[in-house]
Amino acid sequence: MKHEAYEGTYQGEKAVWLRSGKYEAALLPEIGGNLIAFRDAETGSRFLHEPAEDEMEAFKARPMIHGIPVLFPPNRYEDGAFPWEGRTLQLPVNEPETGNHLHGFVYNMPWEIEEFGTTASGSYVVTSIRVDESHPSYASFPFRYTIRLKYELGELGLAQQVQVVNEGDGALPCLLAFHTAVRAPFHPGSAASDCKVKLTIGERWELDGRMLPTSRHQPLSPEEEQLKGEGVYPFYAAMDNHYTAVPQQGRNRMELTDAKAGLTLVYDVGTSYKQWMIWNNFATEGFFCPEPQVNLVNAPKSPLPAEEIGLFRLEPGEIWEERARLYVKAAR
């Protein structure tokens, strides 16, 4: 099996390309370290929602619904206020319709390429972003830290390793998610109606008019019961929903099954992700976002226990690390 890792371009943007056997992937270091493409070159399958050539400017302006954007800290914070360690940080209010801060500081910032190369079993790239007093986000989120991502491509698909290192003098809120955008259908010979999605959800969080949790749960609809059971058509209704994550058989995952192609795309994330978001672009066929998330939305203001809602903290010098994998198997 041939493996390659090299610098190139993706629709005019600097990219690192990985190839391993039938698979290929591309990462955009200057646009948030976004893993923008994961493909099967033999079948023509594209597993992630990629921007079309005429969408690149819109993608760069709002790189949230393509590839695997990194959110740190993720999702919404009421009025941009972020209580932490006896003080309240003021994050920019960048979602005027809700009056909230949305999605953190690293998804549209330049990342550095630390290394890329090949091994006996595949190809890989390591990219990172380091935040200190010189970084534009430090004024509103004054912590020193490094986020590092390693992607490896091989016979078993695409593996991801994420690492957060606290390089400051105080406790760091380790709140992170991926706004992963999955194509449905991913196989070129199929339609969205051939697809069913399964997600390891538990309970649905009630959200108020500003899309913030009320700390209460809502009953699952019949379709949501299917979502955590045998699977459901991904666009049965508009979804912008927040759920607890409940691993099944020791694994926290999304499975997208294409009955026509006889294939299942598995997105197996770690159990550190205590929550899921799922957004399907107002029930528009083509892609949806199963988003593994460490923390409850607006977690620093929640009255619920920190461990229950994933309000993780890193002490100085501590490291948090988690893994995930995207791979394809025969449908059952």
UniProtKB/TrEMBL annotation:
Q: Name one GO molecular function term.
A: isomerase activity
SUPFAM superfamilies cross-referenced by the UniProt entry: Galactose mutarotase-like (SSF74650)
> Do you know which CDD domains this protein is assigned to?
Aldose_epim
The alphabetized list of GO BP terms reads:
carbohydrate metabolic process
Q: Which Pfam families match?
A: Aldose_epim
Q: Which domain of life is it from?
A: Bacteria
What Gene3D superfamilies is this protein classified in?
A: 2.70.98.10
| InterPro entries according to UniProt | Aldose_1/G6P_1-epimerase, Gal_mutarotase_sf_dom, GH-type_carb-bd
User: What is the designated name of this protein?
Assistant: Galactose mutarotase related enzyme
- Organism equals Paenibacillus pasadenensis
Record lineage: Bacteria, Bacillati, Bacillota, Bacilli, Bacillales
